[in-house]
Amino acid sequence: MKRLVFGAITALIIITSSAARADKPSGGTVYGVAFYNLENLFDTINNNGKFDLEFSPQGARQWDSAKYRLKINNLANAIANLVTESTPGGPAIVGIAEVENESVVRDLVEAEPLRSRRLGYVHHDSPDLRGIDVALLYDSTLFTLISYEPHFLYIPDNPEFRTRDQLCVTGLLGRDTLSVIVNHWPSRLGGQELSEPMRIAAAELTRHIADSLWACDPERAIIVMGDLNDDPADASCTRVLGGRDDPYDVAPHAFLNPWIKIHASGRGTLTYRGQWNLFDQILVGGTLLPDNGASSLIYTGARIMDLDFIKQHGGRYDGMPWRTYAGGRFLEGYSDHFPTEIFLFAPAVSVSRP
């Protein structure tokens, strides 16, 4: 009986991973929740010594106001086009990564393609040596901010290590209290195997944050999102976070990872040496699944938002993300990552549960 209930609800919205549309259901509201790595969104001021010197007019990239404004406008245009039939106003929430400071986040939401949406945002300065942070944008007509808290990643075996803080943002989405944990886990610098302990530690911190939230509020809706620098089937996502690909196999205080099957099908959000990775993930807490009955918000699907205009066309990089820079050349592009998005459905009336 539970499987029939889940099937009936998810049938309300048909979401494909390749088309930029979603069939609009009746009798409720669909909310989009997206994530986008913005690839080195730095301003032009060298205020972090050697770590951001290249992103200045005197640096190797000759990063000036014209290039900065073009990138801001490009990214704002990409976010503005994260729309579907059921979410014509765009996502309710967009997590972002690789932003230098609050100033660039403010410039992004005030850029012409997004200005009319009057997006709110949450940003926190992290101790990351490169000076990049995560942040969260939100449609204030759909999401009401309650609180936010940054979480520092401390690694006992490497106490001097500094990376991005994990940003936990809590607010009201529809009738539900939702907490979103925005991540940008440590990179694969030095190789995947050598750097994996850093991401295992990051996953343990994320899991601790989620468990603490559920301990205080067992019915809390929780979403984990970010550039995890690991693929969905890697140990950090499966063994530590406990992500599963079958919604019927997810307990209330566990996570569905819809990207496992998407990546297994050969799709991804970024490429490395010609191979697709899917680092940009959004994991869904079990309370958002209808079988678990805790939330009025119901997860319905996930999609890589590989919009045609943010892709490269022709040549050896055909179909890959259109980057800002490659091989030392300014390409006038967007990012080296595609955005990802999940969809939540809030029925106008209570759904009868078994």
Give the low-confidence spans.
Answer: 1-23
Give the percentage of residues in beta strands: 25-35%
Rg over CA atoms, rounded to whole Å, is: 19 Å
Question: Strands of the biggest beta sheet: in what spatial order?
Answer: 5-6-7-8-13-10-9
Q: Could you tell me the CATH topology label.
A: Deoxyribonuclease I, Chain A
Class per helix and strand makeup: alpha+beta
Order of helices and strands, N to C? HEHEHHEEEEEHEHEEHEEEEEEE
Largest sheet: 7 strands, mixed
Provide the CATH architecture: 4-Layer Sandwich
Number of strands: 17
Describe this structure in words.
The chain has 354 residues and is an alpha+beta fold. Helix content is 21%, strand content 28%. It has one domain (2-16, 28-346): Endonuclease/exonuclease/phosphatase (Deoxyribonuclease I, Chain A, 4-Layer Sandwich). The strands form four sheets. It has a seven-stranded mixed beta sheet. It has a six-stranded mixed beta sheet with strand order 3-4-2-1-17-14, covered by helices on one side.
